[in-house]
């Protein structure tokens, strides 16, 4: 294959990411017919099909999957070259970051806002969702994931542990029976979301929902439980990263610090292969590793 120009690579990436000639053409600022012709020429030069077409969608072939990783890497290098040696400042452009809704609200929104203020020509898009977005398909630069598993399309760094803890306000602990051992929890109002009810205390191997008394308050909003704990309404079971600042400011206290609640997960900062090589993404990656580490139990 002989590349005529970098637009071939940009066109291929646009089609791969959007799975649509119409959307890819719009993204590239050309007509659908022109985009279709570019794809036809590219496949002719490659000697095989890159996409399977139907009336509803375009599906990448295995060959396209392999090419995409290297194409994205090549394009990132080109963009880095343009930023370094061209007229544009390297700290310009868009960076898309994703994480869970609670983590976005509690930590990442503030951290990313501070970073953007230091680099005013950057645009930061925070995609807050509890769904596991496909980073390539959604053009995500960086993602914070818990136990992401092995994937050759990603590279990253472990920044800490996702560990569940029990917390209550100083006022609550003054008014209620002291908690010296796990058994003492049975006399207290324990707040947790349904998912965490399936977690187990390591010392007695019992699920949280089975060991504690039946809940009289249920919600799918974890932030509500943290607020209730701060207001002295019970003992909340929350991730350490969610409450660490409240603990440091004496609004909450850790209970039974040595009690481990399983599972314990690893927190990773991930980037798609090649994405981290761009200067702006690399700078933000390093900033997040340093800034987020204190929130997680290492």
From TrEMBL:
One of its GO terms (molecular function) is DNA-binding transcription factor activity. It comes from the Bacteria. GO terms for biological process: DNA-templated transcription. Keywords: DNA-binding, Transcription, Transcription regulation. Belongs to the LysR transcriptional regulatory family. This is Uncharacterized protein. The lineage of its organism: Bacteria, Pseudomonadati, Bdellovibrionota, Bacteriovoracia, Bacteriovoracales.
């Amino acid at each position: 294959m002989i590349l005529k120009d970098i637009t071939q690579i940009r066109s291929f990436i646009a089609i791969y990411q959007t799975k649509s000639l119409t959307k890819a053409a719009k993204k590239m600022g050309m007509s659908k017919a022109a985009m279709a012709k570019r794809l036809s020429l590219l496949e002719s030069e490659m000697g095989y099909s890159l996409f399977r077409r139907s009336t509803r969608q375009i599906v990448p072939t295995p060959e396209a999957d392999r090419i995409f990783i290297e194409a994205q890497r090549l394009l990132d290098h080109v963009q880095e070259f343009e930023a370094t040696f061209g007229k544009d400042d390297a700290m310009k452009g868009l960076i898309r970051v994703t994480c869970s809704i609670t983590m976005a609200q509690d930590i990442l929104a503030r951290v990313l806002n501070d970073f953007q203020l230091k680099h005013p020509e950057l645009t930061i898009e925070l995609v807050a969702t509890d769904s596991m977005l496909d980073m390539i398909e959604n053009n995500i630069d960086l993602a914070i994931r818990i136990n992401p598993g092995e994937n050759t399309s990603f590279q990253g760094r472990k920044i800490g542990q996702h560990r569940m803890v029990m917390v209550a306000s100083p006022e609550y602990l003054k008014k209620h029976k002291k908690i010296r051992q796990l058994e003492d929890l049975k006399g207290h109002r324990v707040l947790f979301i349904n998912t965490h009810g399936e977690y187990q205390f390591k010392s007695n191997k019992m699920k949280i929902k089975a060991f504690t008394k039946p809940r009289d308050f249920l919600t799918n909003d974890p932030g509500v439980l943290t607020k209730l704990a701060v207001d002295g309404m019970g003992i909340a079971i929350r991730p350490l990263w969610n409450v660490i600042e409240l603990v440091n400011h004496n609004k909450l206290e850790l209970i039974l610090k040595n009690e481990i609640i399983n599972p314990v997960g690893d927190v990773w900062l991930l980037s798609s292969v090649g994405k981290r090589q761009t200067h702006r993404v690399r700078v933000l990656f390093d900033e997040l590793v340093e800034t987020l580490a204190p929130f997680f139990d290492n």
